[in-house]
Write a structure and sequence with these properties.
about 25% strand, mainly beta, 14 strands, 4-stranded antiparallel beta sheet, about 10% helix, Neuraminidase
């Protein structure tokens, strides 16, 4: 199976083939999201099985996708993939990635404070109130450590394109070997996973206070006897050991 997205795969020691699969997954997400209206018009009541390309790139690996009420597409790219272009972008009518919310947030200029620019974006999630939540792991590179002051959660108002709040994830929340991975919002709380230092992070949206729960619990830690195998090869980290990815994606049930 080939990705409908022409994504360039970097060649670092870890997981070139894993990144290919990330590209495949995200390519199909982009294809499926916007294909439904046409199929629904053709055969009302029947789910669509047709896929078509709505956006593609050969400069980055998009690991997060969101669509607003106007049908505009937002994508994110972690810097450790060797990608070029903005960390977070909104695609224009031609599919070109434009820095979002602005160029300063996507700057690699060290003169911009860490709390005001993206260091390593790993996930995005749109809430029910027109907000786009952007997870910045603050990690220097895949397998690296959190840069002090870089890990954060950024909420952007999609209607205005402005940052409404930045939640700093301090050293007690995003630890040295954390890799804050995904986010979901329910009520006045946000839930994030830590794939590096296994735990779930619970954030009080109003106060900004965050706590770690299920630390090193078997529900958040990768099993030691289950290797990640891609195309017949065990995926290994920079140290040569079998890579362990702990709590990764998550979802909140309809009842919260």
């Amino acid at each position: 199976m080939q990705s409908p997205s022409r994504q360039t795969v970097p060649r670092p020691a870890i997981a070139a083939s894993m990144l290919r699969h990330i590209g495949i997954a995200m390519g199909f997400v982009l294809a499926a999201v916007l294909s439904q209206p046409e199929a629904a018009a053709a055969e009302p009541g029947l789910p669509s099985t047709a896929l078509h390309v709505v956006a593609s790139t050969n400069e980055a690996i998009w690991n997060g996708v969101a669509v607003d009420d106007a049908g505009r597409i937002y994508v994110s790219t972690p810097r450790w993939t060797g990608a070029h272009g903005p960390s977070v972008a909104r695609l224009d009518a031609r599919g070109k990635a434009e820095a979002f919310p602005d160029a300063r947030w996507n700057a690699e200029d060290a003169t911009v404070p860490l709390g005001e620019r993206f260091v390593n974006v790993n996930a995005m999630h749109r809430d029910a109130n027109g907000g786009l939540w952007i997870v910045d792991t603050g990690v220097s590179g895949f397998g690296g450590t959190v840069v002090p002051g870089a890990a954060k959660l950024v909420r952007v108002d999609l209607a205005t394109g402005r940052v409404t709040r930045v939640y700093a994830l301090g050293a007690d929340v995003a630890r040295a070997h954390s890799y804050v991975d995904d986010i979901r919002v329910n009520g006045r709380h946000a839930y994030l996973t830590d794939a590096g230092d296994p735990a779930v992070i619970v954030l009080d949206i109003d106060s900004g206070r965050a706590v770690r729960v299920l630390q090193d619990h078997r529900s958040t830690r990768a099993a030691e006897d289950r290797d990640i195998v891609v195309e017949g090869q065990v995926v290994r980290g920079p140290d040569g050991k079998a890579l362990r990815v702990h709590a990764d994606p998550l979802e909140v049930s309809p009842d919260g």
